[in-house]
Write a structure and sequence with these properties.
There is one protein chain. By secondary structure, this protein is of the alpha/beta class. The protein is 41% helix and 17% strand. The mean pLDDT is 95. Bound molecules: farnesyl diphosphate. The site of farnesyl diphosphate has 19 residues, from α1, α2, β4 and α3.
Length: 237
């Protein structure tokens, strides 16, 4: 869809933006605060950016909230992130009022029961929203996702010769929505870190030095402007 910025030419807004919300720990350290204060600030940025995406007509937003590797962090930090997620989920009615649909991708089976319940409630309450579809990746890892997909395919008895790229895509957590057009990673790191590795095969990548808690709508605008300058060929010419 097109979104006209004030005094500017129309531009294409990516249908699906995926974000690696990186830099919370460094943001907190710079301020002499505990790491979880950085995650709390990052959660506020996430809410602001999701609202902005909804406003400008992004259809799908997928954010990396907790990876399959993040369990290696100190228990206090893991607990802190889970508490931020809990608070967010308890508050999710506000989002629903704004016509934002909430979904979760990742392996939920090992998450605390109350979080699983809250996720189901948020998904159910928001299922009729027609604005932004917002997906939080929780206990998500791209390789783990592919392993799950392969196990499902084998368990269904699908024959090797019948397996196509579509078969794999259809067994990923993201099977019901399009691949990301644009993947954003702030905080100066330039890698995917196991995020949507299958789905981002043809995504445009955009990196910024801004730490996630400091990321603002204007930074998203810069990413979208840069996206508009890219020439997506999908392997063609
Ligand atoms: C990466 O920064 C961030 C995470 C591992 C967690 C992100 C989680 C949130 C923003 C809160 C989740 C909750 C909701 C509701 C979205 P880092 O800790 O690796 O930062 P660093 O590289 O500076 O140490």
């Amino acid at each position: 869809m097109f979104f006209k910025k004030k005094n500017d030419a129309p531009r294409v807004v990516p249908e699906h933006i995926a974000i690696i919300m990186d830099g919370n720990g460094r943001w907190a350290k710079k301020r002499g605060l505990p790491r979880n204060a950085g995650h709390a600030a990052g959660s506020k940025t996430f809410k602001d950016i999701a609202r902005y995406c909804n406003k400008i007509g992004v259809k799908h937003l997928t954010v990396y909230a907790f990876s399959t590797e993040n369990w290696k962090r100190p228990a206090e930090e893991v607990e802190g992130i889970m508490n931020i997620l809990r608070d967010y989920l308890k508050d999710s009615k506000n989002y629903i009022k704004e016509n934002i649909m909430l979904k979760f991708i990742g392996d939920r089976t090992v998450l605390p029961d109350d979080i699983k319940e809250l996720m189901l409630t948020a998904e159910d309450d928001s299922k009729n929203a027609t604005g932004l579809c917002c997906y939080l990746a929780v206990n998500y890892g791209g390789r783990d996702e592919i392993v799950h997909a392969v196990r499902d395919i084998v368990n269904k008895g699908i024959k090797a010769e019948d397996i196509t790229e579509d078969t794999i895509s259809e067994h990923l957590y993201t099977n019901y929505y399009p691949d990301p057009d644009l993947v954003i990673r702030p905080s100066g790191e330039q890698r995917l870190s196991n995020y949507l590795i299958w789905q981002s095969a043809y995504s445009e990548l955009w990196f910024s030095d801004v730490l996630w808690p400091d990321f603002k709508a204007k930074d998203l605008d810069r990413a979208i402007d840069e996206y508009n300058k890219r020439n997506r060929r999908f392997g063609g010419i």
